[in-house]
């Protein structure tokens, strides 16, 4: 795949396709293009008709209004900005006091039970449970720096202070040991002995 400009090559290809399609639409609208009753967009520029096919666009007929290009261009740029924005996990729980949770057996047990589907979840526990498989798969590529540091703190604590809890979580989220192998080198760099 040639359009792997980011960690997610499919997003990069989709972005490039959107940009190309937007460029054709932009040219058509600003040079008074019109539809000819098919999904071909006729572009009139300097008296020469050029045709650009835009797959997936239904038949439309008629002329675009004089100022029709600006709202469409604005909408297109907004879509491109959303697509280009990196996909990140929410940061609304980044200020939770991890030290308080880790040092309270009751709180820690509640979070662990949530993750193991043995108890109810707080909103932040539910969010963690939902994103944990993806974070493991993508090497936490959507994590904020604060989330990465928090992850390191929690993993270090569980391995060193609560190994039985660590083993329960590994059994649930890493039954084949794939992630343990994948992250061993990084853990050693951080001073964590897995």
Automatic annotation (TrEMBL):
Transmembrane in keyword set: yes
Residues in the signal sequence: none
Membrane spanning stretches: 12-31, 68-85
Pfam families given in the database record: OS-D
Keyword field: Membrane, Transmembrane, Transmembrane helix
UniProt protein name: Ejaculatory bulb-specific protein 3
């Amino acid at each position: 795949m040639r359009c792997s400009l980011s960690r997610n090559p499919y997003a990069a290809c989709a972005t490039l396709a959107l940009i190309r399609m937007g460029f054709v639409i932009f040219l058509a609208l600003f040079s008074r293009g019109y539809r000819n009753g098919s999904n071909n967009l006729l572009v009139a520029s300097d008296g020469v008709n050029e045709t650009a096919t835009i797959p997936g666009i239904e038949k439309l007929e008629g002329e675009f209004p004089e100022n029709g290009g600006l709202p469409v261009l604005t909408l297109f740029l907004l879509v491109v900005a959303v697509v280009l924005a990196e996909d990140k996990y929410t940061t609304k729980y980044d200020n939770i006091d991890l030290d308080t949770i880790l040092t309270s057996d009751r709180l820690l047990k509640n979070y662990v039970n949530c993750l193991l589907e043995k108890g109810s979840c707080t909103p932040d526990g539910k969010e963690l449970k939902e994103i944990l498989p993806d974070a493991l798969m993508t090497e936490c590529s959507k994590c904020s720096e604060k989330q990465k540091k928090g992850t390191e703190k929690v993993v270090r604590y569980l391995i060193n202070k609560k190994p039985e809890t660590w083993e329960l979580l590994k059994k649930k989220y890493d039954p084949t040991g794939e992630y343990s192998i994948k992250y061993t080198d990084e853990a050693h760099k951080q001073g964590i002995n897995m």
